[in-house]
Structures are given as structure tokens and as C-alpha cells.
Amino acid sequence: MAIPPGVVGHKPNQVCKLHKSIYGLKQASRQWYHKLSSTLFSLGYIQSQHDHSLFTKSASHHFTALLIYVDDLILAGTNSSEIDFVKHHLHNLFRIKDLGPLKKFLGLEIARNSKGITLCQRKYALDILSDTGFLSSKPTVTPMVRTTRLYQGDGEPHPDPASYRRLVGRLLYLTNIRPDLSFAVQQLTQFMASPTTTQHQALTRILRYIKSSPGQGLFYPSSSKLILKAFSDSDWATCLDTRKSISGFCVFLGDSLISWKSKKQQTVARSSSEAEYRALASTSCELQWITYLMQSLQIVYTSPALLYCDNTSACHIANNNVFHERTKHIEIDCHVVRERLLQHLFHLLPISSSEQYADILTKPLDPTPFHYLLSKMGVINIYSPV
Q: Of 135, 107, 139, 133, which is closest to residue 120 (Cα–Cα)?
């Protein structure tokens, strides 16, 4: 370890001899990553330029992928001998603990059978309910009431804002495999500085919704087709404080939901068409990244993706290369949609609002459309009775 800044009296080229674990030191994570990555490079692995935590190795008859999160690793491949060799080599260097076939990873619970793979966070969700005293609460059918509109200063200041922040932070991690919670949690994150009792009441409704299905998660069928399709949507000027719009998109690989986002736009849109067009720009960038990631995984994908939008004007703006009064105020970075469209990265197709899957990521819905769209996104609960 290099000498920390501020230490006086040391000679050039001296280093620190550690008497305890390096965990907690500023240099620890960098040194660990350097040691691990250099070891993988020596074994012939290549680091993905589109996701630096992904290392791959391709040979004539096998392919191996290794995904890293700090000191937790997932190893997958088509050749068991190569996997055993990598594990043995890493064990000699780092004394790793082999947990066998993937069942748990960073709070995710993985179950598999011949039909596919299911991801959920049931234990994590139950821990949240237990810590907050909502295990015996009355469940609700949706995370938010359709008429809910949260804004700054709505209600009395919450007496314990720190507990509000901690709980919202825990719910953020739960959205990793719960797209049904993404919009509701995104709304609550806007009031972390000074939450009110009204916003805390909305937070408790999310907990009661989790109580109704703590084991809900995503299902990835084994028979899914290799077709990329995305749904893009926005809700215009719904933020009562800033009048900014909410963007939402979800990306499917066949019938498997692999990416989604619910986020407030950075600038105010002058029309619903502009808001939809900005949402399309975010979705097209996500499709581009997923295409690059598939190349790193040696997946040959040449067909253009299918991008669905329910706003006719936004589709016309994407297809029309003439600037006019309705588009000259739109920032240039939004026209990445037109650029990717001309490169045949995707086909832009219309869709009815009732079949717009991303609608669940932009606004609160009534129970019937909410659960209909949720069923289309591959969200299931393997713990529910048949």
C-alpha cells in the first residue's frame, strides 16, 4: 500500500506494511479491482467496454462470462471444465468460497426449472416489513392511489425525516426486480430533504402493497425469442413543483423484461409531443447500450429492435428531418432518436395507449389497468397459491 498523504519522515519508495485487513481504506477497492482484473486478463478474459464489471472469454468451442460486484462474482459458461479451471485458479489466489449453482446474489433469490428462471427479493421485502411493523398490515392492490399528486409542503413536516430517507433507500434497492414499484418510489425520492406526513402516508401505502405480494418478481422463460422490443411513454407536466414531465420505458428481450426506468425529465417540455420525444431519446440510448452489451456476450443480433410509442406527433418528429416551429426549440441531443432511426437500430411503431406497457412507469393507475400491464411484463409471484 502506498504511503497516505500527509505522512512526514518517510523515505522515497517506501510502502506500508499492513497489520490488519485493508477493508475501509481508500486504496482497498482500487487495489482489489486491479489485482482481480489483472488475474482475469492473464487467463485470457476480455473486459467489456460497455459494462466494466463484465469479463468474457471466447474460444472455438466454449464461451465464459464473469460478472463482478466488488468481491461477489457470478460465473457462467458453456464449458464446465473452463468454469472449474477459473474457480480453482481464483481459489489459489484469493481463497474463494464456492456457493455452487446460483441461488442467491446480493439479496436476489434465484429459482430455476425447465420453464425458465425467476428472480425475487422475498426475504429482503419481508425484512423491510418486519423492521417497520407492517407484517400484519392490511394489504392494498396498488402502490399508489390514481388521484395522488405529491408536491413540496403538502402536509405537516415529518417528525423523523431520517427514518423516511432510510426506508426510501431500502425501497430503491427493491425496485431492482420490481417494476411495479418504480414510479411510486421515484415520486417519493423527490422529497428526501424535507418529507411531510402526506408523503410518509404515501410511503406506508407502498409497504402495504408489498405486504400483498412480498415474493413477487420477474420470470425469464427459457423459450423466449431473440427479439428486442421497447415501449416508451411520458406523462406531460405532472410535477406540480417544477411542471416537468415523467419519462418511462421498458425493454424486452422476447418476453423477458430486461430493462426499465421511471425518471423525471431534466427540462420543462412545452408540449406532450416534446415530452414523448424526450422519452424516445432515452429509450433509444438504452436500446443502443443493450445492443452493444449483447455483442459483448457473443449474441449475434442483426434485426432492428421494435420501439413502440403511443404519441403520433412524437413519431412524426422522429421521422421528419425538417426543422420547423414545433421542433426548433428542442435540444439537439433529443434528435438522437432520428439518428438511431436512420441507422436502423429500431423501427418506430405506433401503439394504442391501453397496450402501452410503459404507462405503469409514468403515472399511478387504477387496479384493473395496473395489474393488466403488470401481467404483460412477466411479473409473477411463485409463492402465491395456485
A: 107
